[in-house]
Amino acid sequence: MARRELAVVGGGWAGLAAAVEATLQGDTVTLFEMAPQLGGRARRVDVDGVALDNGQHILIGAYRETLRLMQVVGVAPADAFVRSPLRLVYPDGHGLKLPPGAPLLAFARGVVSVRAWPLRDRLALLAAATGWAIRGFRCEPAQTVASLTARLPHRVRDDLIDPLCVAALNTPSDNASASVFLRVIRDALFSGHGSADLLLPIRRLSELFPEPAARWLKAAGAHIELSQRVERLTREGDQWCVDAIPFDHVVLATTAVEAARLTSSIDIAWSTQAGALRYEPIVTVYAQSDGTRLPRPMLALHSDRTRWPAQFVFDQGQLGGRDGLLAFVISGAQAWVDRGAEATCDATLRQADAMLSGLLSSPLRVQRLLTEKRATFSCVPGLQRPPVHVAPGLSAAGDYVAGPYPATLEGALRSAIEAVRAPD
Q1: Same domain, 314 and 360
Q2: How far is CA 305 from CA 138, 244, 333, 366, in A?
Q3: 34: in domain
Q4: Rounded to whole angstroms, how far apart are CA atoms 211 and 254?
Q5: DSSP string across 354-410
Q6: CA geometry: angle at 345 spanning 356 and 322, to 5°?
Q7: Range with the lowest mean pLDDT among 63-77, 93-107, 160-174, 253-267?
């Protein structure tokens, strides 16, 4: 491939991944970011002077492209994460714990070991998973996760399926796409040794990729333009002009809303599809309990839409943060956003009192509530997402772009790689 002058519009994880990948293949790269800093939604916030992320993220061992690009820019995963086999454990110590080893055997051993479920429930889950595998982890496009798993015992759905679904798709199971859920299950649980491992960051998200990527790009000769909003894209002969600057290829790595604006006069169908996406929020409640250290860095919590908001709690003291600071994560949080911050905080504290009472060394005090209203697109059955290819020499990257995964870092980075490699 001939050396190209390539522009990347957007400096989040997808944009930076596109810039790194393009530089690796020999392109000359200019990156435009409208904000004064890189990273997109991986923003830093301060809680009582402690630097934290605007939400808690989990990576898994199956995120191969994410881990590869992190290593390219000099981040060693062993120094950046607490890594362990999948543990979906509740405060009472019960839950799914996958042992190390071959994926199929590890899953079977893990399910059989969940003593909180009757034997018939464990066998029902193994039978269902076997059926999914026989069918190639495919189902009818219109199916929801709730309909796919309706015959499973309610305890299995409550303890495993629902929290896995909302963690992976950020969409409640009665609205979530079963096709996408099965693809995530296949790649995470059954694609290879270590694919289901949990990787919990012990560095801020900006330190995992955005900041090292920026240093790497500058050292490689790429140009990074901050605080520069791109107003328009125009075709001039066989090149694209980003405002008035010509390029051989452009990668749009903005939000879907911004990409829809920039493509509205280029491809109405693509622009309309990007602009029509609906979103699910994520709420994070940071609360302090002096002297508290949870049994694990992450615990699952029983949740519902009426009383208990959070599906998971993370001990920041075990993840590079302040001792006693707990992050309660509420995914698919629209019902709680509608109720307001005060009601959400009160409900989270009541949930913690009910579920963590024996683990807290002192009463919880809410430090901050963070709401990402457009955290991810709503991953519903039959959703049509805009493709990577927009027009000759113009491609798109981001977690919303068409692909096999829900709105995840891995999905965003894979789309970025495909966008860079798209033909001109």
Answers
A1: yes
A2: 29, 50, 9, 20
A3: yes
A4: 18
A5: HHSTTT-SS--EEEEEEEEEEEEE---TT--PPPSEEETTEEE-STTSSSSS-S-HH
A6: 60
A7: 93-107
